[in-house]
Amino acid sequence: MSVEAAYPETGESTLKVSVVQQGTTCKGVVKDAAGETIIGASVVAKGTTNGTITGINGDFSLNNVKTGDIIVVSFVGYQTQEIKFTGQSLNIILKDNTQTLDEVVVVAFGTQKKVNVTGSVSTVGAKEISARPVNSTIEALQGMVPGMNISTGDGGGSLGSDKKFNIRGVGTIGAGSKVEPLVLIDGMEGDMNAINPQDIENISVLKDAAASSIYGSRAPGGVILITTKKGKSGKTVVNYNNNFRFVSPLNMPEMADSYNFALAVNDQLTNGGQTPMYSATKLQQILDFQAGKSTQYMWPTDAGRWNSFDDPQRQDVMPTGNTDWLKTLFGNSFTHEHSLSVNGGTDKIQYYLSANYLDQGGLLKFGDDSKQRYSFTAKINADLTKWLKISYSMRFNRTDYEAPSFAGGDIKSNVFYFDVCRYWPVIPVVDPNGFYTVESKIYQLTEGGRYKSQKDVMAHQLAFIVEPIKDWKINVELNYRSNYNFGHTDYQTVYGYDVSKNPYIIANQTSSVTEYAYKSNFFNPNIFTEYGKSLESGHNFKVMLGFQSELFKQRDITASQDGIMSEVATLNTTQTNAQNRGGYSEWATAGFFGRVNYDYKGRYLAEVNMRYDGTSRFLRDNRWNLFPSFSLGWNMAREAFFEDLTDLISTFKIRGSWGELGNQNTDNWYPFYRTIDINKDQWGNYALGSWLVNGVKPNISKESALVSSLLTWEKTQTLDLGFDLSMLNNRLNVTFDYFQRKSKNMVGPAPELPNLLGIAVPKVNNLDMTSKGWEIQVNWRDQIRDFKYGVTLSLSDNQVVIDKYPNPSNTILDKDNNNTYYAGAHVGDIWGFQTIGIAKTDQEMKDHLAGMPNGAQDVLGSGWGAGDIMYADLNGDGQISRGNKTLADHGDLKKIGNSTPRYNFGLNLDAAWKGFDLKLFFQGTMKRDYMPGSGSTMFWGAVGYWQTNFFKPHLDYFRGEDTTNPLGANLGGYYPRPLENDRNRNPQTGYLQNAAYCRLKNVTLGYTLPKSLTEKFCVNNLRFFVSAENLFTITSLADTFDPETVGIGNWDGCTYPLSKTVSFGLSATF
User: Fold this and answer.
1) Buried b (16+ CB within 10 A) or exposed e, 362-398
2) What is the pLDDT of residue 687?
3) pLDDT at position 216
4) In this structure, are residues 646 and 635 in contact, taking their beta carbons and an 8 Å threshold?
């Protein structure tokens, strides 16, 4: 409403003014449209902290008001009013806030009123996204959208690792296919980890088939629509945001000191009948060094080196240092980010420009890892004529990442992070000569070479909107994106130093350089037309028809060479063993789509979508398919019989949908062609041949698997039932969805045939599974005098059941005792034994074994005694076994848990008072089971002679009354006695971990200076803030694990740690 507006009291407007001269005191009364007084409404002189609230009769009195000041009147659930004070008292009527009813959400190829949406759509606004200083947009969404699951990537907290995410759980278990959300930035596929969060206007998450089916075969996993900001007419507005972050490792379990470590290792060896590693003399040397009584901590080996493992027959040269390697190798870092945007324009042309720079420091103390992101955006919108609009946008993003080659690259498989968990504390950081010890691997980090990657993304989008006649629009969108990636890895020869300070090679006998270049082009035209018509009778129609196509091409080349000859490591400065490889591939899709929307007075709602989709990834006869969806809604709050409740309930919409989508997202873009792998070994790695022919190793190739001409679409069918409820002037909003998603014809493992065939069997469509779950979001927002607050709770759950799987014998474990799929299995099921407990004495174990006369626990191992696990004979056959590892005969195994995260939640609390704002965000999982692997050093500690380390919690292991350990007996120890073999480390109920957690993900406190102050310096808005990420965690999980990294990567928790961050910054508008 215009601040100049004033109306007679008999009018129908939302503002009424009566005239009573009051000088510099502004008085008045605030009522609603029904004439009821509003208690606690905020009345403030705009741009100042001078304010008051209405009393029990809705009246107010505000002193020190000048004639011409703007009076702002607001209350939750009503539209805010601004009135120019002219010296007269005010009689103000606030109108119900219909923003919820008129709110428009972004949907596929357009927008809809939120109240009329019949599919399952969640939205997140710009304030929620930009409020937290995070490294990527996906991090800001964690816990914000019910049903959207965000987890740590395989690289843990590494700067080179991106978050993983899905919508409504696992979308496929197919071999060689994937179901991931389709991320569209202003209508074109993009990377959510790369976009500048400050550029985002809003995000819509399309979760069911009715909402996302119009995108066809690219969207079986749902769609995330990101709409970026654009220019607005008016004067030029400049925004600047920054933040400075102090980063530290989040979960750093404390390693055992060297003395307790040595005692535990001795126990491990003697428990297995071996000789202790650390003699009484060596133990005393360790104690003397810890107490400062001795300065000697290393002894030279016979080879004249300090190497701890160089002479295994002489344990007397074992060092006696006392090092906590996690704290030695990981430390604090600093990150800063800056964003600048400029927007403005006229009624005809608007523009938006932005730039962002993020500089992240890693947590490695040695070798330095860092990441920089540069983002630039330019957008222009123009109304060329009354019937033609045009827009153009350009986005550029560059991401530079650098780390030691010993600790960079593929973090998932990088053995460095596994090694860190196994470093022995007796090994010192430096030797007596001041050089880093060989076992510390520090020289590999600092001198072993560098891993560097640079990723550039350039996106162009040109759009035309033609409106030949009223309500008929023709949209033409041309999207083009190019990606350029460059990677460099050099491995330098690494030297250690012996007792005489002479260097010798300890790693990378032959230095090498590998460089990788990648380019891709993506072209995506969209052409669609829509026509809408509203009749006076209350019937509203909207029809859309369109065509979409995608063409993606990529090319890559890799070259490597050995023997670096210069300080500058490039291919040109190497000399031997040149290898190169490359490839070119492409795929394409095309689709015709249509949508019909209908509603009657916003009361009865219907939507029909059709998509006829084709893909290049299947043979011609299977290339095209039709995918429909239907949805209905009924807003009962618009019914005549609901009129008496409209003051209480403004929206009560029941909705339901069904739809089908195809999945063409195969890993192999040419699954119907037989291809030959050149220069690949049996593990899929590029390598020259193994045999010398005429003095050289020639190229090698191997025959590929057979292919099936019947391979076709995976299909996803989704049923969704839900409701939307708004009450109490939209202060309370509730959204609920129940869904069932059936994935059919997934590509599964090939049927087994005799080895006589001599070649791999082709994969076929032979898997089905069903995902069921529910989601709820509850939002409450209110105001008490000057205090405004809000609470938002998001909660979701889902389970996945296998309906069909090529496992006729219903095998539950493979030959390595890992879980397998079978019809009826839940994804994430954990099979294990029932734990009775730890035997306190040898006699207790003998009595336990005597009760099982048919082999007892012999299948699992021998030499059972005090400190070992007693397993339960569940099937009563007199022995502990896995039976035939089938569903019909699984011996003494049972389902002991499930690793699927259940009841994922996010809780947002926010408050504001006189310029101050406070936000707290909690996030977590209420149910999840985790069974550490038998080789998990992080959980068990002792898992083998060279695979052993002990963190402090691991010292709570069983020690009998007859122990020689100076620490004495520990009959109630949590862990069984340490052993090199894994008989006590089988999956079992006694050590199944509860991986549920609640984490205070973010706390932000801000203060916005009064405009009366900032406007003196030509600043429209200025806000300062302090923020903290990952402040504390509540969990019963073992202390050595972070609940967000448990089970990731290849090393069962041994990974790059997540971060705790404290930051500060400002946001200014000019």
Assistant:
1) bbbebbebbbebbbbbebbbbeeeeeebbbebebebb
2) 54
3) 83
4) no
- In degrees to the nearest 10, what's the CA dihedral of 813, 814, 817, 818? -80
Contacts for 274-278: CB closer than 8 Å, 24+ residues apart: 277/315, 277/318, 278/315, 278/318
Q: How far apart are CA 752 and CA 863, in angstroms?
A: 39
Kindly tell me the burial class for residue 567, based on how many C-beta atoms sit within 10 Å of its own C-beta (0-12, 13-18, 19 or more).
exposed
Output the six-digit token pair for 21.
């001269």
For 770, counting Cβ atoms within 10 Å of its Cβ (0-12 exposed, 13-18 middle, 19+ buried), the class is middle
CA distance 117 to 631: 9
The angle at the Cα of 694, spanning 688 to 699, to the nearest 5 degrees, equals: 25
CA angle 583, 483, 712 (to 5 degrees): 60
Would you state the CATH architecture of domain 15-96?
Answer: Sandwich (2.60)
Give the C-alpha separation, 821 to 819, whole Å: 7
Q: Please state, in angstroms and as integers, the Cα–Cα distance from residue 697 to each residue in 514, 682, 688, following that order.
A: 19, 16, 6
Supply the DSSP symbol for 751: P
Residue 714, CA atoms < 13 Å, CB-side half-sphere: 30
- By the 10 Å C-beta count (0-12 exposed, 13-18 middle, 19+ buried), 679 is classed as middle
pLDDT for the residue numbered 309 = 67
The reply to whether 101-230 shares the fold of 15-96 is no
Domains of the chain by residue range: 15-96, 101-230, 673-706, 829-898, 901-930+994-1069
With beta carbons less than 8 A apart as the criterion, state whether 917 and 129 touch. Answer: no
Phi, psi (deg, nearest 5) at residue 579: -135, 145
Looking at the predicted structure, is the pLDDT value of residue 10 above 70?
Answer: no
For the chain, give the number of residues: 1070
Tokens of 551: 């063409």
Q: Is the pLDDT of residue 187 over 60?
A: yes
Of the candidates 46, 99, 49, 96, which has an alpha carbon nearest to the alpha carbon of residue 68? 46
Are the C-beta atoms of residues 93 and 16 closer than 8 Å to each other?
Answer: yes
CATH number, span 101-230: 2.170.130.10
Q: 929-930 and 59-62: which strand pairing?
A: unpaired
C-alpha distances in angstroms, 665 versus 518, 613, 668, 866, 982? 20, 13, 9, 54, 40
**Position 915, amino acid:** G
pLDDT digit string, tens, across residues 695-723:
666 666 766 777 777 778 889 999 999 99
For residue 330, report the phi and psi dihedrals to the nearest 5 degrees.
-120, 140
**How many angstroms separate the CA atoms of 556 and 573, rounded?**
22
H/E stretch holding 1012: helix 1011-1014
984-1034 pLDDT, tens digit per residue, is: 999 999 999 999 999 999 999 999 999 888 888 889 999 999 999 999 999
Angstrom distance (rounded) from CA 813 to CA 800? 19
**Nearest residue to 191 (alpha-carbon basis) of 403, 395, 400, 463:** 395
Chain centroid to CA 381: 34
Work out the mean pLDDT of the chain and round it to a whole number. Answer: 88
The reported pLDDT for the residue numbered 862 is: 93
At residue 382, the 3 state secondary structure works out as strand
- DSSP helix/strand/coil, 891: coil
β-partners of residue 15 are: 92
pLDDT(380) > 50: yes
Q: Which of 693, 700, 696 lies closest to 676 in space, CA to CA?
A: 700
